Amino acid sequence: MTYAELANPGILTQPVYEPGKPIETVARELGLDPAGIIKLASNENPSGPSPKALAAAQRALQDAQLYPDGGYFALRQKLAQRTGLGLDQFILGSGSNEVIELLGHAFLSPGVECVMHQSAFLVYKLVTLMFGAKPVEVPLAPGLRQDLPSLLAAVTPRTRLVFLASPANPVGATNTAEELAGLAHALPPHVILVFDEAYSDFLETPPDIRPWIAEGRKIIGLKTFSKIYGLAALRVGYGYASRELIALVQRVRQPFNVSGVSAAAALGALDDDEFVARCRKENQAGLLQLADGVRTLGLEYVPGGGNFLLVKVGDGGAVFDALQRQGVITRPVKGYGLPEWLRVTVGTPEQNRRFLRNLRTTI
Questions:
Q1: Widest pairwise Cα distance in the chain
Q2: Looking at the domain that runs over 51-269, which CATH code has it been given?
Q3: Is the entire prediction scored with pTM above 0.90?
Q4: I need a surface site. Which of 7, 142, 241, 270 has the fewest CB within 10 A?
């Protein structure tokens, strides 16, 4: 009997998430000098990690022989102080991805449905399938906009989770606070809205879901330290919601699921408001630089509020390959049902200029 015959049947058809290629991999595969490669594929922060986070992580390494506080009291206390929520309204995860999986453990099973947009962050679908539930994918509106009334219309008595991100990855689309409030208030009581805020820190005035939580709406917000804080390698994020919801999800969280170094770095990052403000300002300038550049080339793009731009280049796979051979790593999004598009992360001004120069010679 083979391992495949012993495995759970669903695992044999489970899609696999493919991350952006690391610089070292591209250098090895194409025989390029790693120093000459730029990576604009994974929405990483070109300014690097928060200095305060880095200093806190280095201090925490001195106690690497000790297990961390499994309840992450200090980090949850800091989050509570900054948000006005209670300590018991937060759950920590190894990136916000893990919190999505924990929601699956708590609420998903065969026969249950999850509603999401087509071309939404692939992990929503992967987690849904992992637990034998059914992903219900709603088409995007013209211009790759997120159609919230259509999300609501797709809800059935079997729906348990509705996934929504704003800004959305990979399309970059955003929704107004009024649109989001309309959805949150219209969902029936057997449905939980999972609101992914991975890129909300790049917005000047992001929507605030705390009043809806206080009203008793079934909603959980997801945040990450990977993006504007520059801690992608440390894998730390969190969810926040009502005490009842968080208590249920805590039951399926493994002890010590976030390393002590990662938790310490996140705690330090929360004090680095100057770094966040600077990164937000630089990102806005970078988005304008990329948008102006692709517009000059006569290319269509999706205006967005994250730290990336989705550009229509024709054959996304071919353009991706050509750019990569020139040492510029971007992200093809054929796997999201967008074969004509390419996603490019906002880099430094010089990296953005290099991408635009190489794109001009490629298309």
A1: 60
A2: 3.40.640.10
A3: yes
A4: 142
